[in-house]
TrEMBL record:
This is Bor family protein. It comes from the Bacteria. It holds the Pfam family Lambda_Bor. It comes from Aquiflexum gelatinilyticum. InterPro entries: Lambda_Bor.
Length: 109
């Protein structure tokens, strides 16, 4: 009887851990155009405080970046652990964005 209880407890612990790790990674990708002039995205970390009541500051792009083509917001196990430990007071996220290529305006000939 004791072995059965230990096996159930161990199985529950494994199932809970797997569920936590599988559910803790999330990506949100927004694409306006698939064409980008940057081979690698620009990565920025932002943190939201007090359950979203205090929003993070805006992401300022470089002067050469006139518009953004793609944005990806990511969370990982570490971000979720910080959020759970602080009960949602601190919620970190990673943001990646690609700048759109500048389309030249045709001139007069």
């Amino acid at each position: 009887m004791k072995k059965s209880f230990q096996f159930r407890r161990f199985s529950f612990l494994i199932l809970f851990s797997l569920t936590f790790y599988i559910a803790s990674c999330a990506n949100l990708r927004i694409v306006s155009k698939y064409d980008s002039d940057n081979p690698a995205p620009v990565q920025v970390n932002r943190t939201t405080y007090f359950w979203g009541l205090r929003q993070p500051v805006d992401v300022k792009t470089e002067a050469s970046c006139k518009s953004i083509c793609q944005i990806t917001v990511k969370t990982n196990v570490g971000h979720i652990l910080i959020s759970v430990i602080t009960l949602g007071i601190v919620v970190p996220q990673s943001v990646e964005y690609f700048c759109c290529p500048e389309v030249p305006i045709p001139g007069e000939i």
